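Work Package 4 report. The design task specified in the project plan requires that, given a folded chain encoded as structure tokens, an amino acid be chosen for each position. We show below one input record used in the internal validation round.
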């Protein structure tokens, strides 16, 4: 089932996130008060709405309750970010992601309901999209134009099997280099004969073109 995401604010980060999510097959709603920016997104989104995101009534009319993810991409506009996060929280959106431009702003957004705060210097639009579009990826690192590294959960069909049985290098073109047991463990070299647990996190290296093999 494809994910639905609303990207509120079309700055550099919002545009990149929206385009990447759309390319990955998500239904993408983009919202901005600038008509020209919305026109530039034609062909890169499912729907677009012109709205003032500081206005509570206009934010409430967006229908955010129907979204799997709301990405508030206005790090330079605290008022609009607060209003958007607050309304999304009231409408019980499962995942609210907000862009921040300072530690203080990050703290405020978390307090009013943002599940994840993004600092653009640390997370680009593509990196965020890779994580948000997947039920498996916990983090995504671009090594270069060809190679990437992902922090991921094992696929359900991998649980209970070891690396020898799974042969991930052959079947998925994935090289698992380390494993840890959720948030409580430490990264360690993977024992190829140890069965995977559902709580394991895997650090894997693969080529970008092969991401679809584990993210479908």
């Amino acid at each position: 089932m494809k994910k639905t995401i609303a990207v509120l604010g079309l700055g550099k980060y919002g545009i990149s996130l929206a385009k990447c999510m759309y390319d990955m097959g998500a239904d993408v709603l983009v919202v901005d008060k600038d008509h020209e920016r919305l026109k530039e997104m034609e062909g890169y989104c499912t729907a677009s709405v012109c709205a003032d995101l500081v206005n509570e009534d206009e934010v409430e009319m967006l229908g955010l309750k129907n979204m799997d993810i709301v990405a508030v991409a206005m790090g330079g506009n605290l008022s609009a970010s607060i209003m958007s996060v607050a309304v999304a929280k009231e409408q019980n959106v499962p995942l609210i992601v907000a862009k921040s431009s300072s530690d203080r702003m990050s703290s405020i957004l978390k307090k009013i309901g943002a599940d994840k705060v993004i600092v653009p210097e640390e997370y680009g639009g593509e990196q965020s999209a890779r994580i948000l579009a997947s039920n498996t990826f916990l983090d995504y690192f671009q090594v270069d134009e060809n190679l990437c590294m992902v922090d991921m959960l094992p696929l359900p069909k991998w649980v209970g099997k070891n690396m020898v049985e799974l042969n991930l290098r052959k079947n998925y073109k994935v090289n698992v280099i380390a494993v840890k047991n959720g948030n409580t463990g430490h990264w360690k070299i993977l024992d190829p004969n140890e069965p995977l647990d559902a709580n394991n996190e895997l650090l894997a290296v693969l080529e970008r073109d092969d991401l679809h093999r584990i993210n479908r």
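Strands lie at 4-8, 27-32, 47-50, 69-72, 95-99, 116-118, 137-142, 147-152, 175-181, 200-207. Validation will be extended to a larger panel in the next phase.
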